[in-house]
Amino acid sequence: MKWMSKPRPSTWLGIIGGGLMFCQLILIGLAHVQLAARTSGQELMRAQVQRLGLSDICIATEARYIRHLAVTDQVAPFMDHPLALEYFPSGSLWAPVISSR
Amino acid sequence: MLFEPFSLALLGAGLISLYLVLVASFTAVQVIRYWDLEADDNRQIELEQRTWLSSALVQGALVLQMVSLVIMIGAADHFADLLSGAMCATGALTANSFGVPALMVKIVTLFCAAIWLTINRIDLSVPTYPLTTAKHWLILTLLPLICLDLGLVTAYLALLRPDIVVSCCGVIFAESTPNGFSLIGLLPTLPLLGCYGALVGVLIWLAIFMRLKMANGKTIGGAEAFVAGLGWPLFYLLSVVVITVIVSPYVYAMPHHRCPFDLLRGSYGWIGYPLYLSLHGAVIAGITIPVTWWSARYPGAADTAQRIQRRAVPGAMALLLVFLTIAAFKPLMYNILGGQW
Amino acid sequence: MGPGYLISLRRQRNLLDFALGSLWRARWKNGGIVVVFSLVIFIIASFRLMVAGLEQASTAVLATVPDITVQRLVAGRQMPVPLWWVEESGAVFGIRSIKPRVWGYYFHETSGANFTIIGVEDFPGGEPLPGVAMQAVSADEQVEENQFSPVVLGQAVHQMLALGDRVNVSLFRPDLTLKGFSVVGLFAPQTGLVTDDLMVMAIDDARDLFALAPHNATDLLISVPNPLEVDTIAQKLMAKLPGSRVITKAQIGKTYNAAFGWRSGFGMICLIGTVAAFVILAWDKAAGLSPEQRREVALLKTLGWQTGDVMAIRFMESLVVCVVAFLVGTGLAWAHIVFTDGFLFKPLLLGWSVLRPSLSPVPVIRFDDVLIIFVMSVVPYLAATIVPAWRGAMIRADATL
Question: Which domain holds residue C262?
Answer without folding.
Answer: 13-61+255-393
